Amino acid sequence: MRHKIIDWDDAYANGINIPQGDRWPDAWAEPAKTYRERMSETGQAKLNLSYGDKPRNRFDLFLPAGDPIGLVVFVHGGFWIRLDNSYFSHLAHGAVETGYAVAVPTYTLAPENRISGITKEIGKAIEAAAEIVSGPIRLTGHSAGGHLVTRMVSATSPLPEDIRKRIVNVVSISGVHDLRPLITTQMNRMQQIDIKEAYLESPALLEPLSRTRLTCWVGAAERSEFLRQNALLANIWKGLGAETDCVEEPDRHHFNILDGLADPHHPLTEALLT
Question: What total number of domains does the chain contain?
């Protein structure tokens, strides 16, 4: 049956289309706070580290009990206009328990910053974390964060060559990889995406770096537009030489899809660390 999307605002609206969706993002805040406090008590947290001059150019770094075997960077979502890293600290647990250091940055939101500016800030955050932690780098991000981590392995990545070479895997969780549909949404009053920026900042419209490994991971119960965006990048980049996978996790929606990262044995964490 043919159909088309008429209401693009509804297509990207998660909270109102998920049962008890108004629980988030507050449902993340307490476990994140508890995790930060516990890791601080054991000396395994370095909080509020700087990677730039702006107030939100900060990241938290969570360390394993021994020497890190590599670096994971998690980039939060919020459609580039809301939230910060304090909601997501507990998601570092799965990788930390497996021996990785995990950096969780935040960034200057739109409309104060453009999407292109946020891309550059995340590049700087990764560089700063990579100066502290040696070894391979694995990137993951949620929603807008999925966009940002896939931009890091796009042909126009802001990362220097030495950092690019250290990236061994990327997992985009419910990522938004083509920005063009967002131009007509109400959110774009703050995002301020125009057609030029959509073409320059959409990973689906860019080529992947050589040797890119990418998993696009989404909840099977998500909005159809997130399912489409998820499959889109995996499909296009596979045709451009990247090693890609596309996963729809059963019984997960846009918010609880992240829970797997807190579990070292969950398939999402395993996909990131493999």
Answer: 1
